[in-house]
Sequence to fold (88 residues):
Amino acid sequence: MNVVSNDDLFIPDIAVLKVSGGGRTAMGIGHAVLLGEIVSPGTRRRGVIDRPWEYAAAKVPFFLLGGGKHLRDAGAVRVLHRPRRTAR
Fold:
């Protein structure tokens, strides 16, 4: 599922949305609960540096990063940000 944020189009490897895409090819980033990138040596900068900042700025609650040896552990998966609890 492609995700749109303002004028930016993102194509995450993994997308968990609040609602069904219903056959659409793109959804607004506000529907995203989790977006993930599976990185390889050729996509490392985008997946490890750029996407976490871009998705956090768009207030996506969870970002999942997966990859191989270049993330230290083969098959490593990491959640890089989570929503913060606010005092009531």
